[in-house]
């Protein structure tokens, strides 16, 4: 059981009615709170919740439509995303309770200040290295459309400027990260056919590839619903068409790919997690056609080359700079 869920269950009497659990972990919490429903934006967690509690968790970027009498927000990593989620639930709970739960190391103490616009927050519990805060919504805000919180920036590329639209909670929100910048400089000589942008974030790589190679079929994949929504906005802003899907890692990707491009993630919440990338490297060959190419950028200190060579074949370092490397390997 997630420690944040354990803290909630110490106060279980507060959560017996219809309560929305926003950003909930994929544990047994829904089983312990029979009137609760989930709102999830992580495709892996949603799949696990669906398997155990079918129909009791909604996936996406918008708060579910069902009537809830209170809401618990599991503190997201991003301050901007926390603001959006709190606003979305508080707008529907005038005179009722919003709770915020999170780990101390994720900054719950400071994040509790984000409850101030709705009323006077108070700390209800502190245990398992977590805190639980509560506010009675005295000032219900107007719900903010998610698009109103988007940040837009422009990248000068050889084919002309590319507009990027990023939403709260998406990796490198509002700016281009150094890894993607390096990979954008090395998109030459990609194979024709079906290309995958794995861990697409705001859709920078997928959109750039689709514009440079318009006859290629491009799929963008991310575990996060807000990333998928950002990618769709980025494609639309540039008049591009590509498939955007959510799923938990490379297992959700199509088969028969001609190329996989990635600036892969290694953070989940406040924790460092290399599993998604290592799983990609182990299984890329299964998703690539013969002669298909994997091209990815990663921090230089990450020892990915031996793993790529073990599972895919000869791996070359195509470029290096600012603490990053681009690896290139073909399925033999």
Give a short summary of the structure:
By secondary structure, the chain is an alpha/beta fold. It has 10 helices and 18 strands.
State the main characteristics.
332 residues, Rossmann fold, 2 domains, 7-stranded mixed β-sheet, 10 helices
Instruction: Note the gap between the termini.
Output: 44 Å
Characterize the biggest β-sheet. Answer: 7 strands, mixed
Number of helices: 10
Q: Pick out the low-confidence regions.
A: none
CATH homologous superfamily name of the largest domain?
Answer: Vaccinia Virus protein VP39
Q: What percentage of residues falls in helices of 4 or more residues? A: 25-40%
| SSE arrangement, N to C | HEHEHEEHEHEEEEHEHEHEEEEHEHEE
Mean residue pLDDT: 94
Rg value:
21 Å
Looking at the overall shape, the CATH architecture of the largest domain is 3-Layer(aba) Sandwich
Number of strands: 18
Strand content range: 25-35%
The number of domains: 2
For the largest sheet, list the strands in their spatial order.
3-2-1-4-5-7-6
Assign the structural class, choosing from mainly alpha, mainly beta, alpha/beta, alpha+beta, or little secondary structure: alpha/beta
**CATH topology value of the largest domain:** Rossmann fold
Principal-axes geometry comes out as: elongated
CATH structural class of the largest domain: Alpha Beta
């Amino acid at each position: 059981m997630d420690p944040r869920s354990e803290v909630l269950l110490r106060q279980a009497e507060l959560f017996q009615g219809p309560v929305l659990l926003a950003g909930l972990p994929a544990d047994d919490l829904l089983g312990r709170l029979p009137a609760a429903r989930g709102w999830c934006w992580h495709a892996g967690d949603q799949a696990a919740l669906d398997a155990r509690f079918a129909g009791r968790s909604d996936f996406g970027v918008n708060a579910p439509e069902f009537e809830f009498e209170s809401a618990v927000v599991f503190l997201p990593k991003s301050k901007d995303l926390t603001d959006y989620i709190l606003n979305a639930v508080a707008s529907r709970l005038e005179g009722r309770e919003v709770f915020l739960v999170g780990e101390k190391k994720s900054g719950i103490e400071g994040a509790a200040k984000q409850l101030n616009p709705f009323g006077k927050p108070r700390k209800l519990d502190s245990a398992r290295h977590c805190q639980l805060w509560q506010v009675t919504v005295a000032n219900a805000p107007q719900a903010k459309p998610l698009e109103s919180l988007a940040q837009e920036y422009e990248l000068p590329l050889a084919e002309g400027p590319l507009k990027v639209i990023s939403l709260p909670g998406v990796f490198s929100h509002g700016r281009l990260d150094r890894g993607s910048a390096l990979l954008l400089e090395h998109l030459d000589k990609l194979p024709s056919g079906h290309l995958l942008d794995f861990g697409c974030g705001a859709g920078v790589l997928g959109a750039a590839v689709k514009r440079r190679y318009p006859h290629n079929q491009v799929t963008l994949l991310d575990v996060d619903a807000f990333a998928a929504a950002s990618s769709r906005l980025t494609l639309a802003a540039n008049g591009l068409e590509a498939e955007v899907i959510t799923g938990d890692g490379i297992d959700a990707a199509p088969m028969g790919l001609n190329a996989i491009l990635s600036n892969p993630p290694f953070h989940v919440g406040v924790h460092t997690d290399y599993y998604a990338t290592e799983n990609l490297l182990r299984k890329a060959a299964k998703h690539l056609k013969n002669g298909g190419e994997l091209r990815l950028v990663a921090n230089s200190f990450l020892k990915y080359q031996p793993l790529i060579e073990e599972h895919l074949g000869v791996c070359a370092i195509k470029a290096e700079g600012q603490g990053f490397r681009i690896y290139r390997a073909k399925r033999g």
